[in-house]
Design brief:
This protein is mainly beta. The protein is 5% helix and 46% strand. The strands form three sheets. Strands 2, 4, 5, 7, 10 and 12 form a six-stranded antiparallel β-sheet that branches. A five-stranded antiparallel β-sheet has the order 3-6-11-8-9, with no helix packed on it. The relative contact order is 0.27.
Length: 184
């Protein structure tokens, strides 16, 4: 009888907590894959105003920024542009999206505003305005996603600006984070 009591006690032990799983950092975009978004698909289209000038050859392109591939918009040639590509990794609710944008010194004949944003699907998930004139500076942001997005969701990068300025998208990636592993 004693063996039966020991066996019953062993069966009542709680299950061990699942080990946290570290999700790897993963680039969401590739500087060489951006293509211009037509206005009918542009989640930033409501920002269009005034004359839009955007030369698709001189206005934006992949560039090396300190030896690192980036995507650059030259607002002297393109004052309003949204580009897109399919996400290179899935995004789960709770993932942190890490963004790094750099802009050169912001100049214009009169005070104005520069704007940069990221959208996933039709949802703008991050944006920031910068006063013109303004110094050259990096913009670092980290946001927590409130919902999941599939690996093939459209990712949009947008810049609109008055003046002759340069903006570069340096980093757009899923940051590592811990999740609770689910039991099989």
């Amino acid at each position: 009888m004693a063996a039966g009591v020991i066996l019953a006690a062993a069966c009542n032990e709680p299950e061990p907590e699942p080990e946290p799983e570290l999700r790897e950092s993963s680039a969401i975009s590739d500087p060489y894959l951006w293509t211009q978004t037509p206005p009918a698909l542009d989640p930033f289209v409501a920002r269009r105003s005034g004359e839009i000038v955007c030369d698709p050859v001189l206005g934006f392109s992949p560039e090396l920024f300190g030896g690192v591939p980036s995507f650059e918009v030259d607002t002297g040639w393109c004052n309003f542009v949204t580009v897109q590509q399919l996400a290179a990794a899935d995004l789960q609710e709770g993932d942190r999206l890490r963004i790094r944008v750099w802009h050169g010194e912001l100049t214009a004949p009169e005070p104005a505003e520069g704007y940069v944003g990221i959208a996933l699907g039709d949802e703008i998930v991050w944006d920031q305005s910068e006063a013109i004139p303004g110094p050259s500076t990096p913009i670092d942001a980290e946001i927590e996603l409130t919902k999941a997005y599939p690996e093939d969701v459209d990712v949009y990068f947008h810049v609109d600006n008055h003046g002759l300025n340069t903006w570069a998208l340096l980093i757009l990636e899923r940051d590592p984070y811990e999740t609770v592993a689910t039991a099989p």
